[in-house]
Amino acid sequence: MSMPAARLSNANVYERLGIRTIVNASGPSTRLSGGIMRPEVAAAMAEASQWCVDLAEVQGRASEILAEATGAEAGYVTAGASAALMLASAACLAGFDPAKMNRLPDTTGMANEVVVARSQRNMYDRAVAQAGARLVEVGIPDRFSGAGVRDAQSWEYEAAINDKTAAILWVAQDHSEPSLPEIVTLARRHKLPVIVDAAGQLPPAENLKRFVAEGADLVAFSGGKAIGGPQASGFLVGRRPLIQSAALQQLDHDIHFDQWSPPASLFDKQMVVGLPASGVGRAAKCGKEEIIGLLTALRLFVEENSEERHIRWLGLCEESPTRSGAAEAQRSPSSSGSTRARLRWSSRWTRTSSACPPSSW
């Protein structure tokens, strides 16, 4: 065997393709390819890839598992939290009307406004607009600009609601105002669904059930962050009719309606008058490998209590100098309750030191 061939035989998949690997000092960031999945998750995905299944049945079983983990009526595995937000919006816009599903993202003549506090706007809420919604901002975030102490208030939401309103979006942060229970009370009066963006709200594990318990109709989570699932995974949980609408707008329905036998855990066929064509969610389809990987990661996350997770993360911090080639490592807690390792390299390295959440290893 030639020397170059010998080197390639011992290389990892990226080295064989001529792609450099990096020290991820940012955490499970998408642009840095996310974190490192636990071996059990990677093994489950590899195993899942070796069989063919009815994807609706897989999502049906996933719905049961997600419902149990979150206290919701149903759930759906998505291609990331952004896809979950987009599907949530599509469900609120179209309901069970297959004609509306076929039209999205064209919402001409439809109730298409989603009310959100101006202080909660962020680059990820573009997923809501992708479904065809128009975001309506309320409130002046004086407390963030330094001009005062106020933020959006319930009466401002009330004033923005009209016959074009389809939903209310609430972004889960410690500082979000008004509180979710206040928003839910307001939404109930107007018979509007509340969508919660909880993409980065794990840990603590208690947040899996918190937002549903507080009355949210749909909650979007990321699967590729602290849960440790595939980077391109997430999940949507909430009221069963809305989850069913989301699924109808994402799954492949190239079948005659009278031959369609959907899993009862996900669909109530009596509520569906017809099957839409490939819905607005088709561009964000989720494969069997991602679904199984996410469910495996979620099981591990739920089974591991906070103290056990903290100890495991501390162990990863201890390993980080050796695995990264760093000359020095210091541990420190982060504001989110996780642990960070600050790594320093000798001057001959060109990389700069940075805070590194152990979830990235």
Task: Tell me about this structure.
By secondary structure, the chain is of the alpha/beta class. It has 2 domains: 3-35 and 306-360, no CATH class; 42-302, Aspartate Aminotransferase, domain 2 (3-Layer(aba) Sandwich), CATH 3.40.640. 37% of the residues lie in helices and 14% in strands. The chain is built from 14 helices and 10 strands. It has helices spanning 3-9, 13-16, 39-48, 55-70, 81-94, 98-103, 126-130, 142-145, 154-160, 180-189, 207-213, 240-248, 288-303, 306-324, and strands at residues 74-78, 113-117, 134-138, 165-171, 194-197, 218-222, 234-238, 328-333, 339-344, 354-356. The strands form 2 sheets. It has a 7-stranded mixed β-sheet with strand order 1-7-6-5-4-2-3, sandwiched between helices. The protein has a 3-stranded antiparallel β-sheet with strand order 8-9-10, with helices on one face. Helix 3 (39-48) packs antiparallel against helix 13 and helix 5 packs across helix 12. The protein is globular, with a radius of gyration of 22 Å. The two termini are 34 Å apart. The relative contact order is 0.17. Residues 349-361 have low confidence and may be disordered.
Beta-strand percent range:
5-15%
Instruction: Calculate Rg over CA atoms.
Output: 22 Å
- Indicate the overall shape: globular
Strand element count: 10
State the share of residues found in helices, binned by percent: 25-40%
**How many structural domains?**
2
Named CATH topology of the largest domain: Aspartate Aminotransferase, domain 2
Per CATH, the superfamily of the largest domain is: Type I PLP-dependent aspartate aminotransferase-like (Major domain)
| Tally of individual helices | 14
CATH architecture designation of the largest domain: 3-Layer(aba) Sandwich
* Poorly predicted segments: 349-361
Q: Order of SSEs, N→C?
A: HHHHEHHEHEHHEHEHEEHHHEEE
Overall pLDDT confidence: 88
